[in-house]
Amino acid sequence: MSIAETIKSRISTRAFLDTPVNEHELREILDVARWSPSGGNLQPWRVHVVSGDARARLIETVKKAIAENPFADESEIAIYPPKLGEPWRTRRYELGEAMYQKLEIPREDKPARIAHLLRNYEFFGAPVGLFFSLDRQFDKGQWAHLGMFMQSIALVAAERGLSSCMQEAWTARAKSVSAFLGLAAEEQLYCGMALGYGDTTEKVNQLRSSRVTVDEFATFMTE
Ligand SMILES: Cc1cc2nc3c(=O)[nH]c(=O)nc-3n(C[C@H](O)[C@H](O)[C@H](O)COP(=O)(O)O)c2cc1C
């Protein structure tokens, strides 16, 4: 696959097979992704990989925390601005509606929508979960670099026939996850990523989110 094809074919996969991904393959993916660029070559990213028993224990730990306090918000980072303006608000809404349409969950069926959201905390069934963190001294620049690293992982995985879903949902349980991973106090958790083989029989994986055209986000100055 060309880079363009890989970029266009990567989608967020929200239902996985339990087919395992071996550590050797994970290491190979990270071994490519480490060549991502970063300002000053700081390579500020850190990644924590969970699979097997560790994954099962993490899921159990977070499930318990959710049962004890379903509405807890342990996030240090706001996933979206508190008053998300247009056109972003509409884009977010449309994505949600398109996803629930694929899942055949109507707007009124709140319990089913919540149940789907909670699947985030099981990595949507993926056998591997990755968590990304940064040293707290870092600012917006390094956060952008972490994003490049994450995209590299998703693309290298896609090139190898693996699917992924980046998961900011985990930030709502950042304290529980950080404690589980044994993160040092200066380490800030950002995001998770589910990784594995997508279940192509699940309709949710047929969702192809839209994008605005180049003219809607690019300007070209020539004079
Ligand atoms: C940093 C990041 C975090 C995300 N977090 C979640 C998440 O927690 N749960 C989820 O289902 N999708 C999540 N997504 C997926 C986005 O909804 C998705 O990337 C977007 O709708 C575009 O669709 P596509 O990835 O299929 O092209 C996240 C994406 C990014 C880049």
UniProtKB/TrEMBL annotation:
Keywords: Flavoprotein, FMN, Oxidoreductase. SUPFAM superfamilies: FMN-dependent nitroreductase-like. Residues 7-197 form the Nitroreductase domain. Pfam families: Nitroreductase. Its cofactor is FMN. It comes from the Bacteria. Belongs to the nitroreductase family. It comes from Hyphococcus lacteus. The keyword Oxidoreductase applies. This is Nitroreductase. The keyword Methyltransferase does not apply.
